[in-house]
Structure formats: C-alpha cells, structure tokens
Design goal:
This protein has 512 residues and is of the alpha/beta class. It has a domain of 305 residues: NAD(P)-binding Rossmann-like Domain (Rossmann fold), CATH 3.40.50. It is built from 20 helices and 13 strands. Helix 7 packs parallel to helix 10, helix 11 crosses helix 13 and helix 14 runs antiparallel to helix 15.
Length: 512
C-alpha cells in the first residue's frame, strides 16, 4: 500500500465529483489505450470541463480531421448513444508532436495548458521493439522530459499520470512496484542521440541496452527516472500496464484495434495462416484487458489528485497487470482460440485452424520453411496465375518478424507483483464501484476470448456478423478438404513405404 491509500478517505469526493469541472491534457489520445481512456472519462465523468488532446498531422491529415476521424471510431458507439454531444462539446485538439522540443506546442496553446489544466495523462509512446535508439529515445524519453517541463509550469496541477510498462525491468525477477536503479544516465543518453550520427548511435546501442531486449523497454525504464526526479515536487503516479488486450466490458466487450497479444495468435490461427509459434508452451504472459487498465488509470489519478502535494511525498508505482490473479499460457490461448474459432470462424479461411507451440528454435525454423514459406509461395503463385493480388508471402514474413521480436517474452517467465494496484481498487468508494472498480480474478477466460474473437472479426477484420453462416459453411468445407488431403498424403506415404524395396528389406531383417 502506498501513502496515498494509507489515509482517511471518508471525506474525499467520489471519482465523478472529483472530475467535475476539471480540465485534462492528454497525449496518446488517438492510440488504443488513449481512445478507451477518453471514452471512459467522457462517459463516466461527464461533468468534467474539457479534455485537450495533443495531436499531430499524420500522413497529410490535419489534426482537426483526425479529431473527426477519432470520434467516428466504433469505440465511441456507446458515448454517441448515451451521451450525445459530450465529445463535440468537451474534446479539443492542440496541434503538437511528442517527438519535438516543447511538444511542438505554440506559445498560445502552451499558455492554455499552463493556466487551465488540472490533470495530465501522458500515454503517448512508441511501442515498436525494432525502433533505432534515436527514434525510441525521442518518442519515449525526450517526450517525457518535455512533458515534465510543461507540468512544472502548470499552475493548478493536481495529478500527472505517467504510463510506463510492466516490462521495463525484465532484467529482474520478480519485478516489484518500486523504482529500480537506472540502466543508464538518461541525460547522457539523450545527449548522445542528439549529437552523434545514426551509425555511431547504432554501434553504441548494444552497449547501452545491456541485458534489455530492445530500445522500447530501455527508453521506458529511463523515462521513469525522468519522472521520479520530481518526487515531492510534482503530484505524479507511475502506472506500468502489462500487455494490454481486448476490453472485458467497456466500451463494449471485445473492443480491439490491433493484433497485439493473444488476439493476433487467434486470428492468425483462425485464418489457417499460423502453423507454428516459437514459444515455451507453459510460459504465462501477463495480459490486462484495456478497460481494466483504464479504470486503474482513473482511480490512480483520483487517489493522487485528492491529496495535497507535500515535499516528502513519494511517487507511487502501480503494476497494472493480472499477476497471479488470472494467468494463461500460450498453449492455453491457442487451445481456447481453436475451440472458439470453430464456433465463430473467420471469413475466407485459407486452411484449417492451425498453430502449434514449438519450443525448439531449430524445429521452428524447419516448420516455418515447410509449413509457412513453401505453401505461401504456392498460394501466391496460383494468385499470380489467376491475376489476383499476391499477399501470403508478405503476411508470413510479418508473422515471422513478429515472432522474432516477441520470442524474448514468449520464452521467459516473470513474476509481477501488483499489491499496490489491488490495494488501490479497495479504496474506491462504494458508490463508484459499478463504474470504476476493476476485477481480474473473476474474468472467465473462455467468455473473454470468445468476445475477443468476435471483436476481432468486427473491428479488426471488418467482417460482418450476418456473414457468419457463410463463414461456417466455408469452415466445414475447409475442414473436410484438410481431412481429404491428410488422408491422401498419409495413404500415399504408407503405399510408398509398403512398396519400397529398401523399406521391405529393412523390415525383413528386423523381423527375421
């Protein structure tokens, strides 16, 4: 328990009461977690004053158009229905860029934040594992420094929530809700990235990473120290989500907009594309539903924002993760996924539901060649002959690259403690429990992953529910074809063995 929970909360306002009239500044509002955080704040704390989103032009689309596209997301279906006008009247964009000095804000917009903001959510980050150190440092480390510098000037700051990751200290086990020593000097790291050329930085990168697997977790770990230097100076909490996956219930069951985590495995397996996965079958990865994480974010901002900052205040760390409360292994995910996809098949399956866990790297590479590469070349060749767009080899290349990037996490086990995160939920007031209390241990795995699979069909693959009967019919044809091909293959193999002179002579020698 942190000092924030270890106090009398009887006279503390409820979460909606606390947020009433508050102005919020948020980065990462167009990302997966950011969308759900924005929706939840508007839905459950509707009396807040306004939310400012830091947005940059992307692929030629101006921020105002991105804001309109953001609200068009299915994530806001519930909000449009039950809270009409809330988004339009309370959400505003500020043109900027986390990768730039000063967050790319104009003087006018910076003054707006300084004078009006009460709560900051710094959610933006680059989560690409293969980013060069320069890129990752700019997006994850420099942006945090710039956010802290901005927060220092905010006149009425009550809370700043810094979103990190549970995997920022994977050189340790167990990993507790504390700040570990820095892996490097963050100022020196930024100075090198700013002053040295790309080639030199790339050469130095392995030395800097040390035991860490990639630039993402390395820079996120250093960013925590940028924040922690403000202990007793700024009202900050650090939240470390684990692998954030589909929603459990809000804004609707199964909401997802990326292929990260188990949903990617289930979709690739359900399409018949994934035939082998390099992983340790009994390793349990830590997954957290996005709405559970967001409830934790809001509860943390409330518990920090309702206490006056004092010079001796620490910066609490919350592991927003399942830990031992609800664990699932890669093997269990694939098994559950195969069962679910049989009932809710995906459109246009290429082959039967596949996917096996392979703990041997050599065997995995052999299976990739035999079961991924060669069939992909064959299918793409047929597509080319019939004048269709070739894509299967490209898809398999992406799957292989993703597996290589994730193998560090799929073959090792960590124990994350989440006592602070669990104690936090126990302090949520009774009248707030329906909207903000979060449970992990009672989530039924089958129902959750069923909703995740249905959500993947709707929101990722854009497949229609009314097409399910056609998908089921196609699934039956594919499964029948799979059995026919296997029967023919093993039948021909058996015939060859029976009629092969070498094999017959070998059997004769063994028997006689």
């Amino acid at each position: 328990m942190t000092f924030l929970e270890d106090r009398d909360l009887e006279d503390v306002p409820t979460i909606p009461e606390y947020y009433k009239g508050k102005t919020i500044f948020m980065t990462g509002g167009t990302g997966f977690m950011g969308k759900v955080l924005l929706e939840k704040l508007l839905y459950s704390c509707t009396d807040l004053d306004r939310i400012y989103l830091l947005m940059r032009p992307k692929k030629g689309v101006q921020p105002e158009n991105r804001l309109a596209a953001l609200y068009a997301s299915p994530c806001y279906n519930r909000l449009r229905k039950d809270r009409p006008g809330a988004f339009e009247s309370k959400v505003f964009f500020l043109a900027g860029d986390c990768s730039e000095l000063g967050l790319g804000l104009s003087e006018e917009d910076r003054a707006l934040i300084v004078n009006r903001t009460h709560i900051i959510f710094h959610v933006a980050a680059s989560v690409r594992f293969d980013d060069p150190l320069k890129t990752s440092a700019k997006l994850n480390l420099q942006s945090t420094r710039e956010m802290v510098e901005l927060a220092k000037d905010v006149r009425n700051l009550e809370c700043m929530v810094h979103v990190s990751t549970s995997y920022s200290n994977t050189n340790r086990d167990p990993i507790e809700e504390i700040l570990y020593p820095p892996l490097a000097d963050w100022r020196e790291t930024l100075e090198i990235c700013e002053n040295f050329d790309d080639r030199t930085v790339n050469i130095l990168t392995p030395k800097y990473l040390g035991e860490m697997p990639n630039t993402y977790v390395f820079t996120k770990q250093l960013a925590e120290h940028v924040v922690y230097e403000q202990k007793g100076k700024l009202p900050i909490v650090i939240i470390r989500p684990s692998v954030v996956i589909s929603s459990y219930s809000e804004p609707m069951p199964g909401w997802i907009e990326n292929f990260n985590g188990p949903v990617g495995l289930i979709v690739a397996s359900g399409k018949g594309i994934l035939r082998s996965l390099y992983a340790s079958p009994d390793v349990t990865a830590d997954y957290i539903p996005v709405d559970v994480a967001i409830r934790g974010f809001i509860a943390a901002s409330w518990i920090r924002g309702t206490k006056k900052l004092e010079p001796f205040d620490d910066i609490p760390v919350y592991h927003c993760c399942a830990s031992s409360l609800n664990q699932v292994s890669s093997h269990e995910i694939l098994s559950i996924g195969k069962e679910i996809v049989a009932s809710y098949p995906l459109d246009n399956m290429i082959w039967s539901i596949g996917g096996t866990i392979t703990p041997s790297k050599w065997v995995y590479n052999f299976k990739v060649l035999l079961l991924h590469v060669l069939p992909a070349i064959l299918i793409d060749t047929l597509l080319w002959i019939f004048g269709k767009k070739t894509m299967v080899v490209k898809v398999h290349r992406r799957i292989y690259s993703a597996n290589c990037a994730l193998e560090y996490y799929l073959t090792q086990q960590w124990t994350f403690t989440n006592k602070n995160f669990i104690n936090l939920r126990s302090k949520i007031k009774e009248e707030d429990e329906a909207q903000f209390y979060y449970e992990i241990e009672r989530i039924d795995r089958y129902d959750f992953y069923k909703n995740s699979c249905v959500g993947a069909r709707r929101y990722l693959l854009k497949e229609k529910d009314e097409d399910l009967p056609k998908a089921r019919a196609h699934y039956k044809r594919i499964m029948f074809l799979d059995k026919v091909v296997k029967f023919l293959f093993y039948g021909i193999l058996l015939w060859w063995l029976i009629h092969n002179n070498f094999v017959r002579n070998l059997i004769d020698k063994v028997l006689y």
